[in-house]
Specification:
It is a single chain. This protein has about 400 residues and is α+β, with helices and mostly antiparallel strands. The protein is built from 16 helices and twelve strands. It has one domain: Orthogonal Bundle (Cytochrome p450), CATH 1.10.630.10. About 50% of the residues lie in helices and about 10% in strands. The strands form four sheets. Strands 1-2-10-7-3 form a five-stranded mixed β-sheet. A three-stranded antiparallel β-sheet has the order 4-12-11. A two-stranded antiparallel ribbon has the order 5-6. A hairpin with a 4-residue loop joins β1 and β2. The longest helix is centred in the middle third of the chain and has 32 residues. The N and C termini lie far apart (about 50 Å).
């Protein structure tokens, strides 16, 4: 039997619980061809970790080849707003462009700026939990998990409060293009959101040039290195990436994490009894039900994986969710353990594309879980949740709770 038959990212049943399928993939070998998406699946932790650092692979190939030289068809011209936006962000660039932009962004998005946000994050998390408690419960995702990271990134960029409801729909539509084989309707929504979001940010950048503020957008405008500065497009793409990547990780880790804790009451009780476990518990929740299940890489030079030659022009799908449940790296990986100490999960990636916003995501997650654990000791599940159809970015539609 073809091992890749255990991988069905368009099946609601698989999306709800991909982990048994991952286990069969790992047992069957180190790499498997998956014809529906024309990708090589890589399910083992050691391989995924190594390939994230291997410069024979890249998020793009356009720094070395044209589409035609690489054996690929250029995207439709109608999709250009999405690809311009996506192609000028850190996520889809390779050195030297990636190195230059990351260096400049790091001058604005500093550890101190992130640390200085911590009181704001705690305040926002507290306000959202207060609202949930006042209602006696509700949808934890819609009322707490989703608003928090959007509010934080909006606060950080200096986006006016009245405009913030625009951000989540734009982000959701753009992120639809990261799923496997997105259809034309998904592409149409992503293109529209890319154009609207880009136009909005260009206006905001113009305003900040005229009236600088104490915010990240002003800092990005001013970031320079030996005379080099970010272009306007690079600033726009950076802001969109910060929102998209930042909020997806926090929203889905919050929802997936609470769903996991409700299913493991002894672990939830241990966490409620000892708040000092929270930082490690957040890492375990990121490992146990990873919000980003798959990350793609192009093969820029022939490479051998597990005795299989993968030629230049191929695409590999690095299965983060599988890697984070690999028994070769994590003892008893199917068990949720909020006291797990040795936890090199890949929830934030690795190598040069390691998530720039990981420190901020950790602050947000510790704040929202901490507030709920402290102030909602009787928080309980009301109904079993359903998963959204997306697999690559995997999360719940809603999580109905009572306080």
């Amino acid at each position: 039997m073809d091992p890749s038959a255990d991988f069905d990212p368009w099946s609601p049943r698989f999306v709800a619980d991909p982990y048994p399928g991952y286990a069969r993939l790992r047992a069957a070998g180190r790499i498997h061809w998956f014809a529906p998406s024309r990708q090589w699946l890589v399910p083992h932790h050691a391989d995924v970790r190594a390939l994230l650092r291997d410069r024979r692979l890249g998020r793009t190939y356009l720094h070395r080849f044209t589409h035609e030289e690489f054996g690929r068809t250029p995207p439709p011209s109608a999709h250009e707003p999405f690809h311009v936006l996506n192609g000028n962000g850190l996520l889809d660039l390779e050195p030297p462009d990636h190195s230059r932009i990351r260096r400049l962004v790091a001058k604005a998005f500093t550890p101190r700026r992130v640390d200085d946000l911590a009181p704001t994050v705690r305040r926002l998390a507290g306000e959202l939990v207060t609202g949930l408690l006042a209602e006696g419960g509700g949808d934890l995702i819609a009322t707490v998990a989703e608003p928090l990271p959007v509010a934080v990134i909006a606060e950080m960029l200096g986006i006016p409060a009245a405009d913030r409801p625009l951000l989540r729909p734009w982000s959701a539509d753009i992120c639809g293009m990261y799923e496997l084989n997105p259809d034309e309707e998904t592409a149409r929504r992503a293109v529209r959101a890319s154009a609207e979001f880009s136009a909005y940010l260009r206006e905001l950048i113009a305003d900040r040039r005229a009236r600088p503020g104490d915010d990240l957008l002003t800092a990005l405008i001013g970031a320079h290195d030996e005379g080099d500065r970010l272009t306007e497009q690079e600033m726009v793409s950076t802001c969109v990436l910060l929102l998209n990547a930042g909020h997806e990780a926090t929203v889905n880790t919050t929802g997936n994490g609470w769903w996991a804790l409700f299913r493991h009451p002894a672990q939830l009780a241990a966490l409620r009894a000892d708040p000092a476990l929270l930082p490690g518990a957040v890492e375990e929740l990121l490992r146990y039900d990873t919000p980003l299940q798959l990350f793609e890489r192009w093969v820029l030079d022939d490479i051998e994986i597990g005795g299989t030659l993968v030629p230049r022009g191929s695409e590999v799908a690095l299965l983060f969710g599988s890697a984070n449940r690999d028994p070769a790296r994590f003892p008893d990986p199917e068990r949720l353990d909020v006291t797990r100490a040795d936890n090199p999960h890949l929830g934030f990636g690795a190598g040069i594309h390691y998530c720039l916003g990981a420190p901020l995501a950790r602050i947000e997650l510790q704040a929202v879980f901490g507030e709920l654990l402290r102030r909602a000791p009787r928080l309980r599940l009301v109904a079993e949740p359903q998963w959204k159809p997306g697999f690559v970015i995997r999360g719940l539609r809603e999580l109905l709770v009572a306080c």
